Amino acid sequence: MKHLSSVVYALVLFGLLIPATAFAKAGLGFSISASTDGYFSSTLVEVKVASVKAGSPSEKAGLKAGDLILDINGKPVKGANGLAMKKILGGVKPGEHLLLKVQRGREGVLVIDIVAGP
Q1: Residues 6+ apart with CB under 8 A from 56
Q2: Is 35:46 a contact under the CB 8 Å cutoff?
Q3: Which end of the chain is more exposed for a tag (fewer CB within 10 A), N or C?
Q4: Rounded CA separation 107/110 (Å)
Q5: pLDDT at residue 60, rounded to an integer
Q6: The domain containing residue 93 runs over which residues?
Q7: Using CA atoms, how far apart are residues 84 and 51, in angstroms rounded to an integer?
Q8: C-alpha distances in angstroms, 107 versus 34, 51, 87, 102?
Q9: Average pLDDT score over residue span 1-20
């Protein structure tokens, strides 16, 4: 993470930390925090799960706050365009699967298969 301002800029500009928009639509039930490689850049460096709503499809699938998201539906997060990743997350429809590869501390790399709710 280069600069805290990069994180704030990414969250505000790309709306990546607003569960009521991109995540609630598809019924995923989690929010994220993201950092970019510069203040005016949309190139992602890191995306972490900020929170997981109790009883949500994400919780049922085993996603946890603090998980580092490595890829989304087979697309690597590091170096990706933040708007493209937001589009993928926001485009998940009820009943569709969202596959996340996450790094979780000592447990290592896990694949989380979330079936979006209504």
Answers
A1: 27, 28, 29, 30, 117
A2: yes
A3: C
A4: 8
A5: 96
A6: 4-115
A7: 21
A8: 22, 19, 29, 10
A9: 40
Distance CA 24, CA 3 (A): 29
Model pLDDT for residues 32-73, shown as the tens digit of each residue: 988 888 888 889 999 999 999 999 999 999 999 999 999 999
CATH number at residue 62: 2.30.42.10
**pLDDT tens-digit readout, 65-99:** 999 999 999 999 999 998 888 888 888 999 999 99
| H-run or E-run covering 27 | none
Distance between CA atoms of residues 84 and 78, nearest Å: 12
Place of tokens 């925090």: 33
Q: How many domains does the chain have?
A: 1
Rounded to two decimals, what is the model's pTM?
A: 0.78
From residue 82, alpha-carbon distances to 18, 54, 89, 98, 112 in Å are: 14, 26, 11, 17, 20
